[in-house]
Amino acid sequence: MLRTELDGPRITFTIDDPERRNPLTNEVVSAMIAELRALPAQARVVVLTGAGDRAFCAGGDLAGGFFAAPVETHSERAQLAELFRLMRRCGRPVIARVNGHALAGGFGLMLGCDTAISVDSATFGMPEVGIGLWPMVITAVAQRALAPKVALDLMMTGRRFGADEALALGAVSQVVPVAQLDTAIDAAVDALVEKSAAVVALGKDAFYAAQDMPFDAALDFLASGITAVALTDDAREGLAAFVGKRTPRFEGR
After folding, report:
1. Considering only CA atoms, which of 139, 136, 32, 148 is closest in space to residue 94?
2. Contact call for residues 32 and 82 (beta carbons, < 8 A)
3. CA–CA separation, 146 vs 156, rounded Å?
4. Rounded CA separation 241/234 (Å)
5. Which pLDDT belongs to residue 106?
6. How far apart are CA 57 and CA 68, in angstroms?
7. Is 196 exposed, middle or buried (0-12, 13-18, 19+ CB in 10 A)?
8. Is the pTM of this model over 0.85?
9. For residue range 11-51, what is the model confidence (pLDDT) as tens digits?
């Protein structure tokens, strides 16, 4: 149920089950993990999306047994945690192409991306509490992507909300009409590909590492980080291009 397409520097993962609103099944999560572990060097940007025009991802596959036999299937459900780790550590920007509703685990999948561009008709939320469940694993990404009180309120109430509110809350980076979604994704990919792959990877790693550090420790860590960036060939090229008033030619090292 996961379709993968490599197109130049872009690799797109599409959850391909539109009739069921692209559920986040164990098989889909396993396939995403495998693909992220084996990203080709050519792939500079990862795009995650859902098939069709109704849903990005509507969450776990309740009918398919995702929540059945809690003890026996614990390791399978824990795959979602590994997916979130790999999304952060894959060394590439990850863009959510939110073509429709992003609910429950699908909302968490979107928040786990580095940036998200959504159609204006999408709805969002963590409605698990309404059926006696709790969005446990996605708590880790929700409480980092949203203000804590906002995240907890959405979990406790299960309230759904629209794209404009998602933008105001910082859950998505950009909201566009349906007809403009692919144009916006293309522009985002092109902007990222123009940058140094080495510097973006170092910067992304530093951003997430510093997020969970105490303030003083984060400052010390980031001070070392700028030195690591300055030692790259691309940083030297970028500075030379700036001084020479020309476009830099980054080589990703």
Report:
1. 32
2. no
3. 15
4. 10
5. 96
6. 20
7. buried
8. yes
9. 999 999 999 999 999 999 999 999 999 999 999 999 999 99
Positions of the chain with pLDDT under 50: none
**Cα–Cα dist 198/41, whole Å:** 12
Tokens 């009739």 locate to 19
> Nearest CA to 70 among 125, 136, 15, 129?
136
Helical (H) or strand (E) element with 234: helix 233-244
CB 224, CB 207: distance < 8 Å? no
From the list 128, 165, 194, 237, the catalytic residue is: 128
Q: Which residues contact 222 (CB under 8 A, 6 or more apart)?
A: 206, 210
Specify the residue for token string 């060939």: 233
Among residues 4, 3, 6, the alpha carbon closest in space to that of 189 is found at 6
C-alpha pair distances (Å), 218 with each of 74, 141, 221? 34, 19, 5
pLDDT at 74: 64
Are residues 146 and 169 in contact, defined by beta-carbon separation less than 8 angstroms?
Answer: yes
Q: Which residues contact 138 (CB under 8 A, 6 or more apart)?
A: 80, 104, 105, 107, 108, 109, 111, 112, 126
Does the annotation mark 165 as catalytic?
Answer: no
Structure tokens given for 110? 């979107």
CB 32 within 8 A of CB 79: no
The phi-psi region of residue 40 (left if phi > 0; otherwise alpha if psi is between -120 and 50; otherwise beta) is: beta
Query: Can you tell me the distance from the alpha carbon of 187 to that of 97, in angstroms, rounded to the nearest whole number?
Result: 12
